[in-house]
Each structure stands twice: as structure tokens, then as C-alpha cells.
Amino acid sequence: MRLCVGILVGLSLLSCLTAAVAAAPASTYHLIKTIAVGGEGGWDCLTIDRSAHRLYIARSNRITIVDVEKGTVVGEIANTPGVHGVALIPRQHRGFTSNGGDDTVTVFDTETLKEVDRIKVGSRPDVIIFDRSSNRVFTFNGGSQDATAIDAATMKVLGTIALGGRPEFAASGGNGTIFVNIEDKSEIVAFDAKALTVKSRWPLAPGEGPSGLAFDRENHRLFAACSNEKMAVVDSETGRLVTTVPIGKGPDGAGFDSGLAFSPNGRDGTLTVIQEESPEKFSVVATIATQVSARTMALDRRSHTIYLAAARFVAPPAGATPQRGRPNIEPNSFVILVFGR
User: Fold this and answer.
1) Which residues contact 268 (CB under 8 A, 6 or more apart)?
2) What's the pLDDT at 14?
3) Cα–Cα dist 273/270, whole Å
4) Which of 100, 202, 210, 295 has the greatest number of C-beta atoms within 10 Å?
């Protein structure tokens, strides 16, 4: 009897300890450091090369590269007009940029940062990803509302796929399927990475205007950050809307790591942390103060580190017209906020 009680007590303590460990990551995320980057211009997507400890930042007409361990700028890739993002293939020492200003992709050497090729793609390429299963790079083109497939080995365009709307962030399923948010249709499109054919279209209602997209491959769950302050959770096998979870205002990114989904909310200056309690149950477990404008993110799943880009804004000079409705950035106020456990 004493042995049984002891076992029960031990199991109870183990259960409590396990629950505490599972709950700890969300509650312990905090600002580790701020990296001053400075420079002129806005920004868009962030991409982390965790093996090289480098963060690639799309900065209007160039890519800025930051050593996240040293906290210093280590280089730039110029002549990338209207650049939105970077896709990396570290084992091939190759990087690919999506240049929305001239409808091209710059291919560069990640060791020398020198351009090695330039590829013509669809109109106004935005998000860009690498799919390992097909060994292809995909640009998601907001102007032509399609995706361009590039062979990562030959750097040749293999074809395009019409998406039927304006694409935003995308995620690789790892098994030959690509998922992409369609912002103006409030849906997710799933397509075959090799055949370049649409497999499914899944509505996100009541979610509207999806931007950021993250993926839990183990539990087949997609997380779409929507502009109406909802995170839509979708079954990646059936397209079923599992649930929606409240997030902040102005998201433009998403991430998933170890049972936690993240939404950086640029207008609120917050980071919403969502716990995946089970594949059917999700809840907000933390809302972390960041900085107003911190809307895009990169996530290092090995170190469980989150990188957010932010800057301060100032009123435009008298008589000046704001660019595309966006506020002016205070010179040299651009920073990278590093959050971790």
C-alpha cells in the first residue's frame, strides 16, 4: 500500500513537473537584447541562417545581413529593388531574393555575398521560400497573382502556377505540398510543388486578410495570422478550420515552435503566444510587449529565439506626401529585437 501511494505521489509530482515545464516557455519569453542596425528605408521579411548565426533583412533596395551573436552588421547585398524576402539553401551556399521592383530574383553566394545570377519571374514577387522536397525555390507574385518555380540547382524557371488571388506568406509541407495565404480572398491555397497544380482552396472565415503563415508538421496544423485580429488554425490535411484565436492588430508574420504559435502585432507592439494544448485546443498564454511597428519575424527553432524588426516613426515634413500611406521612419532608429526563453 505504501509502495502504491509512493508511486501515485511520484507520478503526480512528475505530472505536475511535466505540466510546469510545458507551460514555462510561453511565460518566460522575454527581450534578450536589442541590436542597433540603423540605415535608411523600410523593411519586410526576415530570414535566419541558424548555422551561420546570420539574419537576412529585406530593406527596400538591399539586403542587410546581421551577425546575431556579435550584434553587428556584417554585409549587404545591393541592387535588389523593392526586395521583400530571402530564401536560403545553406548546403549549396546559395541565397535567393525576391525583388518586387523589377520582377527578378537575385541569386547570391552566401559566403561572398556576391551576385551569381539574376532570374526573371512574375510581377511584383513578394514572399520567397525554398522547398527541400522538390529542390525548388518559389516566389509568390502579388502583381500577377501566381507563383514562379525555380530549379535550385540549375537556377532556371520551371513554370508558374495561377493562384487566383494576391499571395502572402507561404509554408512548405515537406512532402511536396506548398501552402500559401491568399490575402484578398481570405483563403489558403495548397498546390503540388512538382506538378504545379492547385490541390485545394480552403476558406479562412471568420479570419480575414491573412498574411503570416506558420506550420506544425507533426500535428498537421497551419496558423494563418489575419488582419482582423484572429489567428486561424487549419487542418493541413482536410482544410477544416479547427478554431480561431485572438491576436493583436497589424500582424505580418507568424511562427511555430515546440507547441507554441506566435503572432507579431505591429500596430499593438505585442507578440501573441498561443499554446497548442492539443491538435484541437489552442489558447493565448502570453501577450508580450515588443515595439510598435514590430510586425515581421524570424524564428530559430534550435535556440528557440525570435527576431523582430522595428523602428520609430516621425511625422512627415510640412507639405510632404507620405510614401504609399506609410509613416516616415526616424533615421537610424531601425533595430532587431531578440526574444528568447
Assistant:
1) 248, 249, 250, 292
2) 34
3) 10
4) 210
- Per-chain mean pLDDT for the chain: 90
At residue 103, does pLDDT exceed 60?
yes
**Reduced to 3 states, what is the DSSP secondary structure of residue 4?**
helix
For 197, the enclosing helix (H) or strand (E) is none
pLDDT value at residue 28: 76
How many residues appear in the chain? Answer: 341
Distance from C-alpha of 98 to C-alpha of 126, rounded to nearest angstrom: 6
Q: List the domain boundaries for the chain.
A: 29-340
Q: What integer pLDDT is reported at residue 322 of this predicted model?
A: 54
Q: State whether residue 215 is helix, strand or coil.
A: strand
> What is the pTM for the complete model shown?
0.89
The CATH code of domain 29-340 reads 2.130.10.10
pLDDT range class, residue 181, cuts 50, 70, 90: very high
Q: How far apart are CA 116 and CA 152, in angstroms?
A: 13
Rounded to the nearest 5 percent, the helix, strand and coil shares of the chain are: 10, 50, 40
Give ∠ CA 34-222-99 in degrees, rounded to 5.
60
Q: What is the DSSP string of 111-166?
A: TT--EEEEEE-SSSEEEEEEETTTTEEEEEETTTTEEEEEETTT--EEEEEE-SS-
263 contact partners, CB below 8 Å, separation of at least 6: 212, 225, 231, 247, 248, 251, 253, 254, 271, 272, 274
Quote the pLDDT of residue 13: 36
